[in-house]
Amino acid sequence: MADLTIPAELLPSDGRLGCGPSKIRHEAVRALYEAGPRLLGTSHRQPPVREIVRRVRAGVRDLFDLPEGYEVVVGNGGATAFWEVATFCLIERRSEHLAFGEFSSKFAASTKAAPFLEDPLVIASEAGTHPVAVPDESVDAYALTHNETSTGVQMDIVRPRLASGGAAPGLVLVDATSGAGGLRVEPGEFDAYYFAPQKCFGSEGGLWCACLSPAAIERSERASGGRYVPAFLDLGIALKSSRLDQTYNTPATATLLLFALQLEWFNSNGGLEFSASRSDASAEVIYGWAERSSFAEPFVHKPDERSHVVATIDFDESVDAGAVAKTLRANGIVDTDPYRKLGRNQLRVALFPTIEPSDVEALTACVDYVVERL
Fold first, then answer.
1. Angle (deg, nearest 10), helices 26-39 and 253-268
2. Average of per-residue pLDDT across 341-362
């Protein structure tokens, strides 16, 4: 089937529909090329690169409309590194984790391995669903995931509530790597909203960015003063560097610039409502198609839990989704395979704001074309 040629008129204008590193806009690549001679290969301690860090921090603040006292911190290493940062600097004694896929489970594994923390409380649910946080007096941090990239499940971000209706004590730490910029969120519902820029922000990997509340900043200062923290994982050091519009270690300047350009594209067109609406439009296309299809259906059964940035579509057992993905790749539509550990007969498709909803619609036509010829 990989030899099957899909008619050119059916193909999307851009076939980068994978959920790993995202599609980068041509305009951003062109801007990077033009800026290269004065930026690439220069010191990140000097004004040209520091100005880009300033643009990133200001752009994130504007996009999420952060309240007074919240700060934007940028560091090296990606969201995986931030799990360790949070383990050292944002959890005092014990954390509660909602585990409903590969990535939401990994943060819990980090805290369980930390010898200076008590074993975490883990609330798990089956793939394709998400659990709900439960207030617990032994917990001082709640670890939530805005979007589980492996399964295509999103959850609303709200602070755990006590029976009285008030918010439970403790920080709310939100892994938003594949959701930030494509899903709506209220800043008052989190203390740390952290992500990497290679998904909705149309950039490359290797950085993390975190929106921190005053309570999270105070917690990091207290934790850093009471236990050994490697400098690379010290949130206090990252915060001081960010306040100087720097990163503690040398960053990838190209990644920073692409990140800044995407933020400015979002904010100049209406901010988070603009970017999230683009993802909404793509989600409407692909889930509507799957519900009408004779051989496909959304993997996530509850409509309000279906991700608007990562769609997972199950295929009937009579259709080999792997063969479909292989044929799509041979025709320039790349990385639609399911998450490898999920092990389902499905396609997984990115719906990030950079992706044109019309290209998602073209994808569905291409899938229909291939399946008809299997």
1. 130
2. 97
Those residues whose C-beta lies under 8 Å from the C-beta of residue 168, and which sit 6 or more positions away, are: 135, 136, 142, 159, 160, 161, 162
The domains found in the chain, sorted by start residue, are: 8-24+271-372 (3.90.1150.10), 26-268 (3.40.640.10)
pLDDT per residue over 156-207, tens digit each?
Answer: 999 999 989 899 999 999 999 999 999 999 999 999 999 999 999 999 999 9
User: At 312, which helix (H) or strand (E)?
Assistant: strand 310-315
For the segment 288-322, what is each residue's pLDDT rounded down to a tens digit?
999 999 999 999 999 999 999 999 999 999 999 99
SS3 assignment, position 193: strand
- pLDDT higher than 90, residue 265: yes
| Nearest-angstrom CA–CA distance, 23 and 140 | 38
- Amino acid code (one letter) for 339: Y
- The pLDDT of 229-255, averaged and rounded, is 95
Count the residues in the chain: 374
**Residue 145, helix vs strand vs coil:** strand
CB 308 within 8 A of CB 280: yes
Structure tokens that stand for 87 in this block: 């383990």
What would the two tokens of residue 306 be? 């279906």
